[in-house]
Write a structure and sequence with these properties.
By secondary structure, the protein is an alpha/beta fold. The protein has two domains: 146 residues, Rossmann fold (3-Layer(aba) Sandwich); 75 residues, no CATH class. The protein contains ten helices and seven strands. It has a five-stranded parallel β-sheet, with helices on both faces. Strands 4-6 form a two-stranded antiparallel sheet. The two termini are 19 Å apart. The N terminus is likely disordered. Bound molecules: iron/sulfur cluster (SF4). The site of iron/sulfur cluster (SF4) has 12 residues, from helix 4.
Length: 243
């Protein structure tokens, strides 16, 4: 028996989501949950570029983002919103994707500054990722170089309204079109790019597997499955220590 036999293999199906709901009051409860979600959000601000300078006024006494129910959060595990504030270098994009994948669903992405929309003034740079939505599903863009705090607050309000009405479903697109997003990431980082997060298993868990979740790019994940190799090395090192 191989020592890998006891290790939970990635991409195993977990309990399927999408159970049928029979309670007639379920939709009333759903509306209430959506309203509460839109009024209580924790935001991880990943300050990548100069647009971040408009966040302090937006978050403090003059514009006071907290009155909308939005507070800063320091860890992706407990954040609802990932805020990207400007140009994104290729190296930074890897951290952004890892951060996004660690966030619990439902989760939302806001791109501040023209640099996140189309590269902005760095549109010709070899070192930046030009269009953020090629790599992650973006819910709201706030364009400008740099956008004023009023625009930031307005973008937040738009996201709140989308969450309340149930339109903010972009997080599902990441699971449903994972092969597309992964393909764009691999073009930038190389075909052996992967994160420790198991998006395919999560897609199964949420009942969001489509014929676009798996494809030629996700096949490469199996080929370059480094975490298992690393785990195998750790286990063999531990076994050597015992003997
Ligand atoms: S849009 Fe302007 S302010 Fe914003 S990150 Fe780009 S260069 Fe900086």
């Amino acid at each position: 028996m191989s020592k890998l036999d006891n290790i939970p293999v990635r991409h195993q199906p977990t309990e399927a989501a999408g159970r049928k709901r029979t309670n007639p009051l379920a939709h009333v409860f759903d509306e209430l949950v959506k309203f509460c979600q839109s009024r209580s959000m924790f935001m991880l601000h990943y300050c990548t570029g100069c647009g971040a300078i408009e966040l302090p006024p937006a978050m403090t006494s003059r514009f006071d983002m907290e009155r909308l129910g939005i507070q800063p959060m320091v860890t992706p595990r407990q954040a609802d919103i990932l805020l990207i504030t400007g140009y994104v270098s290729i190296k930074t994009l890897k951290r952004i994707i890892l951060t996004y994948e660690q966030m619990q669903s439902p989760k939302y992405v806001i791109g501040i500054c023209s640099c996140t929309v189309n590269g902005g003034m760095y549109w010709q740079s070899y070192a930046t990722a030009k269009v953020l939505k090629d790599y992650l599903p973006v819910d709201v863009y706030i364009a400008g170089c740099m956008p004023r705090p009023e625009a930031v607050i307005s973008g937040m309000r738009e996201l709140m309204s989308d969450i309340k009405s149930g339109r903010a479903q972009n997080w599902k697109r990441y699971y449903e079109n994972y092969d597309h997003y992964l393909g764009n990431q691999q073009k930038l980082f190389g075909e052996d790019w992967q994160t420790p997060t198991d998006i395919i298993a999560e897609a199964r868990h949420y009942g969001l597997m489509t014929d676009r979740t798996l494809g030629e790019h996700t096949a490469l994940l199996e080929k370059h499955q480094r975490p298992l190799e690393a785990l195998e090395m750790r286990l063999s090192a531990r076994e050597k220590q015992k003997t």
